[in-house]
TrEMBL record:
Membrane-crossing residue ranges in chain numbering: 20-53, 139-168, 206-227
Taxonomic superkingdom: Bacteria
One Pfam family recorded for the sequence: CDP-OH_P_transf
Entry keywords, A to Z: Membrane, Transferase, Transmembrane, Transmembrane helix
Protein name as it appears in the record: CDP-alcohol phosphatidyltransferase family protein
Aminoacyl-tRNA synthetase among keywords: no
InterPro entries registered for this protein in UniProt: CDP-OH_P_trans, CDP-OH_PTrfase_TM_dom, CDP_ALCOHOL_P_TRANSF_CS
Organism: Streptomyces broussonetiae
Amino acid sequence: MALNNPYGASPVLQEPAVGAGVQILLLALLGPAIGMGPAGWLTGLVFAVATWAVLSRAVHRSRLRSFGPANRVTLGRAVLVGAVTALVADSFAGPPPVTLLVGLTAVALLLDGVDGKVARRTGTSSALGARFDMEVDAFLILVLSVYVAVSVSVGPWVVLIGGMRYAFVAASYVYRWLNAPLPPSTARKTVAALQGVLLLVAGSDLLPRVATTGLAALALGLLVWSFGRDVVWLWRRSRAVAAVGGAGTGAGPERVLEPVAG
């Protein structure tokens, strides 16, 4: 996105601002059409400003020379997630436009697999892009879990689905062994992808209450299993590191810590 730059700002730093502008424009189009209330407007605007601020700081610290096509796809997804967040906040005051909410969420979920493919095909993969993608996914799951818990009235326990990743991050500040890198896992990726799909179907209000509750319970059960599996692996890894470091046998820790595909 090439823009005139009279104030000397780096072009790559302009892209988060463009994303915030698109977010506000989308709210301006959707708000009057659906009669969005103050809660929806405020939440959407806060999301736009917060995304701009956090992403701008991350881009500056990463010293990227180009924002890249994959990050633009993720930024587009973030704009959709911002709109979904505004709709969910607005749903606390009155019935939400379920069709619109489901449609925006479905597009955001479908694009989840696009940014990674674009990054690989264009050779623009980066740590920032991977983190940006993960944070957008995590926040969408949190918002959907709140919607299913409150607006669909399944129960507050559903928020555990969206909160589990943030609880894991908080715990990693106390238990440093949780920060170790995990081995690649198809099962983990599958469970993560299913969270959005199951919560979307549960939030569509198309199924009987028993089925909706069952889908939410399935999503939570799969997530508990996935996180529990990873926590056990990390704990065993930390024990292995301690054992190798204390034994002084000369056996390389890479032998003890060799990941097993799962």
